[in-house]
Amino acid sequence: MNLDDLRNQIDSLDSEIVKLLNERINVVLKIGEEKKKEGAEIYVPSRERAVFDKIRSLNGGPLPEESAHAIYREIMSAALALETDMKIAYLGPEATFTHQAARNKFGVSVDYIPTSTIAEVFDRVANRAADYGVVPVENSTEGAVTHTFDQFATTPLKICAEIYLPISLTLLSRHRKDEISLIFSKQEAFGQCRAWLAGNMPNAKLSPVESTTKAVQLALETPGAAAVASVMASDMYDIEVLAENIQDMQGNTTRFLIIGQDFSAATGNDKTSVMFGVKHKVGALYDALSVFKADNINMTKIESRPSRNKNWEYYFFVDIDGHADDPEVKRALEALQEHCTVMTVLGSYPKAEM
Ligand SMILES: O=C(O)C(=O)C[C@]1(C(=O)O)C=C[C@@H](O)C=C1
């Protein structure tokens, strides 16, 4: 077959694909109407998980799994945008790693609202200026993003999904490497490439700013300056990449949370996040955590933060395997309540792939 014949074949396949996509969208619009009648959530992480799993099992190749996933991410992004005027608040400005995480989760068709603080993401979702919010919660090299944990102590919002994003840091500048005397970045990003900077840029002064994007803006306008930021920022601001992959740990990954008004439905492969406080008495935390062991529930994380009510009093943030509707998790959470001065289930949501 010659090139023209092959392209004719593609033309007729494309017309089938577009027809089928629109048929799918017509069904999505009906789903959107039903959800509005029932007051149900538009974004349904549990259903998206089922769609992605189904596509993976249907796809026999040669289309790579990652490509099938990306295509379906955008198909569902278009669906979300058509079902409602979906708005996603994220810790901005544009081109931050949180922006990237939000785009990986919700695609390009929905509207995005960049905010300047994590608290503002929570506010936007709480006062319904945004449907969902995306915030960083922990990094594999640098640990907890404490601002996010602290917000959960005062908000009724729930975690409805999570996402892991591999973080690759780049050194960006208009100048040559040997001309750089000042480097801007976010404190957390500096922490993730501390050894590389000490080894490769030992004489440059490090200046922490609010975001990696702000760092790029400052690097563009400051003589002799560079920024540590994402590759996305270099494309968006047209600034040269001097060094790539400068993070000290090659598996450097950040976990982000999607916050909304409600939990996600159970999928059979979920995680539940709980926040609680215990009395100041011998073995109080041990007793509280023993409820998980009693029901054979795996704990995947624990973090403690000052309660901000009283000095030296703490809130514990724990993640466990399972959904709050699973019988053993339900039982364990009821038992946990007995050991706590305060306790809130922050959300149950599908476990993300790393
Ligand atoms: O099944 C739904 O609830 C839909 O809205 C459809 C759909 C999809 O396109 O498959 C779109 C968005 C939801 O987050 C989940 C699935």
Automatic annotation (TrEMBL):
CDD domains for the chain: ACT_CM-PDT, PBP2_PDT_1
UniProt domain Prephenate dehydratase: residue ranges: 87-261
Catalyzed chemical reaction(s): prephenate + H(+) = 3-phenylpyruvate + CO2 + H2O; chorismate = prephenate
Transmembrane segments: none
Claim: Nuclease is one of the keywords in the record: no
Domain Chorismate mutase: start-end pairs: 1-87
SMART domains documented for this protein: CM_2 (SM00830)
A molecular function (GO) term: prephenate dehydratase activity
Involved pathway(s): Metabolic intermediate biosynthesis; prephenate biosynthesis; prephenate from chorismate: step 1/1; Amino-acid biosynthesis; L-phenylalanine biosynthesis; phenylpyruvate from prephenate: step 1/1
UniProt keyword Cytoplasm present: yes
Top-rank taxon, per record: Bacteria
Keywords linked to the UniProt accession: Amino-acid biosynthesis, Aromatic amino acid biosynthesis, Cytoplasm, Isomerase, Lyase, Multifunctional enzyme, Phenylalanine biosynthesis
Chief location: cytoplasm
Location of the ACT domain: 273-350
EC number: 4.2.1.51, 5.4.99.5
Compartments it resides in: Cytoplasm
Function: Catalyzes the Claisen rearrangement of chorismate to prephenate and the decarboxylation/dehydration of prephenate to phenylpyruvate.
Name of protein: Bifunctional chorismate mutase/prephenate dehydratase
Organism: Pontiella agarivorans
Primary gene name: pheA
